[in-house]
Amino acid sequence: AAFPKNFLWGAATAAYQVEGAHNEDGKGLSIWDVFSHLPGTTYQNTNGDVAVDHYHRMQEDVALMAEMGLQSYRFSISWPRLLPNGRGEVNEAGVKFYSDLIDTLLAHNIVPMITLYHWDLPQALQDEGGWEVRSTALAFEEYARLCYSRYGDRVKLWATFNETIVFIGHGYITGSHPPSVRDPARAIQACHQVFIAHALAVKAFHEMNIQGDIGFVNVLQPHTALTSSPEDRIATELADAIHTHWLYDPVLKGHYPEALLAQTQALWDVPRFEPGDDELLRNNICDFIGLNYYRRETVVANPGDTQIASNHNGEPNSGAEFGFKDLFKFVRNPDGVYTDWDWEIWPQGLTDGIMMIKERYGDIPMYITENGLGAKDPIIDGEIVDQPRIDYLQMHIDAMEKAMAQGADVRGYYPWSFIDLLSWLNGYKKQYGFVYVDHQQNLTRKRKKSFFWYQNVIATRGQQR
Ligand SMILES: C[C@@]1(C(=O)O)OC[C@H]2O[C@@H](O)[C@H](O)[C@@H](O)[C@H]2O1
């Protein structure tokens, strides 16, 4: 099945990982600006102070996107760049940066897709309690309304949050992300406030009559039991319930999965609802779902403690799998093929995952908002020969096409990432980009082999790959 004419061939980034200029032109600090400066929190003490300096090189970077023929670009807005204190006073220089980015994209016929929250909460709001308190959700609505009012005339594709499982899971369960809490009950309550923030932003989107679509971006993570034992099968069902049903149902069905909700409220009396929360969730369903696919996980029952997997490089495996005490944990599939960061390469999981979402949520429009290979790319005679990335992406485009042939309404593909960027915990060794950044040469950009490969995929609308 050829890809439809209006299918969007894109690529993705996130503000904290590319922009730098962490305290320039009036920007406030985010929790990542603060956390990454704490000793030992990130690999090699890397941080986003400069990142790959996209803030000062935006025109050059968009020109590279245009040269590639990119039809869409998914980026996130740094909340504290617009609202240094999280709410109230607007930093007009920050508003202008994204307005210029949007105008430059449109001038090159590149469709912008905005992610409002890609983990960089204003530190000022964290100081008030962060995602655990309702006032942060209200501040998020104010921030969303500001973005709609300033960019809603030109941007048609909006997503509220990126990967709750990562910023809540690592922020409140493993503690490897800010605010470094390890308490599942607090995690569930924080996650509830995020769902409310999302619903308030969707409600505002409708009230302001913004022309376009608004959605949510989650990790798409199929689970396979290591053995057919009852324990492993139950553990796998629990992994599906927590990683998929709990995180997708509130934004696609408008409520939590009942059985699991009863368990969390019996166990920890969370999530605690405020009056009106039910209606907010029920009345603000997404127009689309963004799916970030990287890997499948193999599951066993977990008699032990919560674990954090790390890769065999010994680095903290950002986005690392974690087990839930006495519930389930992820283990290596003995027959699996793995990346250097211990993520199983399993393209069939993209087909299966898309069809699982279609099965559970019906004909919801979907975008593959992230998919990519994190690797240390080979450099041969000065050329970045990232053939493993080309092979990975080609297999996953095939897998996506298979799901579309089975009737899934997939509307775009955004490989992670347009350009090599700062990995939250893994510094710069873990590269994902079509464009290389030379940290020994003042962050000079260099086209990788995959840049030209993807240029041709786009030019042939997916026929050649
Ligand atoms: C944890 C990790 C990684 O570093 O590999 O997973 C894949 C990708 O997901 C994105 O949402 C993050 O913004 C980006 O930094 C990457 O993060």
Chart the SSEs and their pairings.
Elements: E1 8-12, H1 15-18, H2 31-35, H3 54-68, E2 72-76, H4 79-82, H5 92-107, E3 111-117, H6 123-126, H7 134-151, E4 157-162, H8 164-167, H9 169-174, H10 184-207, E5 213-220, E6 223-225, H11 230-252, H12 258-268, H13 277-282, E7 288-293, E8 297-301, E9 328-331, H14 348-361, E10 366-370, E11 379-380, E12 383-384, H15 387-405, E13 410-413, E14 435-438, E15 444-447, H16 449-459
Parallel strand pairs: 1-2, 1-13, 2-3, 3-4, 4-5, 5-7, 6-8, 7-10, 10-13
Antiparallel strand pairs: 8-9, 11-12, 14-15
Helix pairs in contact: 3-5, 7-10, 14-15
This protein binds ligand 8VR.
List of distinct ligands in this structure: ligand 8VR
What fraction, in percent, of the residue positions are helical?
25-40%
Estimated share of beta-strand residues: 15-25%
Q: How much is the radius of gyration in Å?
A: 21 Å
Q: Regions with pLDDT < 50 over 5+ consecutive residues? A: none
Head-to-tail CA distance between termini: 14 Å
Number of strands: 15
